[in-house]
Design goal:
single chain, 337 residues, alpha/beta, Rossmann fold, 2 domains, five-stranded parallel sheet, four-stranded parallel sheet, 13 helices, globular, binds phosphoric acid mono(formamide)ester, binds norvaline, ornithine carbamoyltransferase activity, Asp/Orn_carbamoylTrfase
Length: 337
């Protein structure tokens, strides 16, 4: 008997139902436990995994690599300048070739269409490691971290404060709505999510009894927040928007004053990373020179505060990516929830 996950791709959050997402989160917690106890879990022994990266990455690349090795598989990194994809060979042809040699493919890049075409033509499971539209593997790590902290998911409120139209905002909006977490996207009106996404989130929220709030009002948006989440103001590939984004988003910086606006006793902070919270990067130094800012989407004080769980969240990328690969590629029997 095969499992409900076997052979499936993970291209966007709603490829899986609520119960399936919850299963993957709990399975990741189990795999984390095995790793901590040094118990072998080589569910993918003998498999080959291609890691395609058109955009740069620390966490996603490291997580797929170490997860694959822990599972007994061989990961092979194929960077933007290493292969013919897009320049000399179509996505369809590349997918057919890779699918004949690799058992699974991870793709990080610009276009959602590319990851979908890879899945269509390769004949093997494909995992989206971030596109301009979605960041699904990030979501599993985020909600595992939230569950580890609060012991539950349903009924919590997550306020995402920042660029309301990027991949992480889209993914949080839809995943929260699927899972029954109240979601506020707190962003200037100019950066409100696309209307069809809001409609989709509202549909899911109706079924899960969650709530969706899209607002430019910070006080209203964070009042009930158990989790405050932010991401960079300028995503990869949008570098020309820096000036405009700083002007729009500076009032939405996650600082101590904003954290204090919540009515909850214990609000945690999350960030998918990388973050601009100090002047220790080239981009931050450049931004300081041009715009006089020493911190961007989050202040160093919040980032280093006791409620900031972004490094636990980063570690969880590995455990959750491992769960997705093992479930979709391994011979595990996972019954229908
Ligand atoms: N959060 C995340 O995807 O990080 P990387 O860009 O380093 O992979
Ligand atoms: N929104 C960010 C996420 C990075 C993990 C970007 O796309 O650059």
């Amino acid at each position: 008997m095969t499992s409900i996950f076997q052979g499936k791709s993970f291209l966007k959050e709603n490829d899986f139902k609520k119960e399936e997402l919850l299963y993957l989160i709990d399975f990741a917690a189990h795999l984390k436990d095995l790793k901590q106890q040094n118990i072998s879990h080589k569910y993918l022994a003998g498999k080959n995994i291609a890691l395609l990266f058109e955009k740069t990455s620390t966490r996603t690349r490291a997580a797929f690599t170490t997860a694959a090795i822990d599972l007994g598989a061989h990961p092979e990194y194929l960077g933007k300048n290493d292969i013919q994809l897009g320049k000399k060979e179509s996505v369809e042809d590349t997918a057919k070739v890779l699918g004949s040699m690799f058992d699974g493919i991870e793709y990080r890049g610009f276009s959602q269409k590319t990851v979908e075409a890879l899945a269509e033509y390769s004949g093997v499971p494909v995992w989206n490691g971030l596109t301009d539209e979605w960041h699904p593997t990030q979501m599993l790590a985020d909600f595992l971290t939230i569950k580890e902290h609060f012991g539950k998911l349903e009924g919590l409120t997550l306020a995402y404060v920042g660029d309301g139209r990027n991949n992480v905002a889209n993914s949080l909006l839809i995943t929260s709505a699927i899972l029954g977490i109240n979601i506020s996207i707190v962003t200037p009106e100019k950066l409100f999510p696309e209307n069809d996404l809001i409609v989709m989130a509202e549909e899911y929220a109706k079924a899960s009894k969650g709530n969706v709030l899209i607002t430019d009002d910070i006080d209203q948006g964070v009042a009930q927040a158990d989790i405050i989440y932010t991401d960079v103001w300028v995503s990869m590939g949008e570098e020309e928007t820096f000036k405009e984004r700083i002007e729009l988003l500076l009032p939405y910086q996650v600082n101590q004053e904003l954290m204090m606006k919540t009515q909850k006793n214990e609000t945690i902070f999350l960030h998918c990373l990388p973050a601009f919270h100090d002047l220790e990067t080239e981009v931050a130094k450049e931004t300081k020179k041009k715009y006089g800012l020493k911190e961007m989407e989050v202040t160093d004080e919040v980032f280093r505060g006791k409620n900031a769980l972004q490094f636990q969240q980063a570690e969880n990328r590995m455990h959750t990516i491992k769960a997705v690969m093992a479930a979709t590629l391994g011979n595990l029997f996972i019954p229908k929830a």
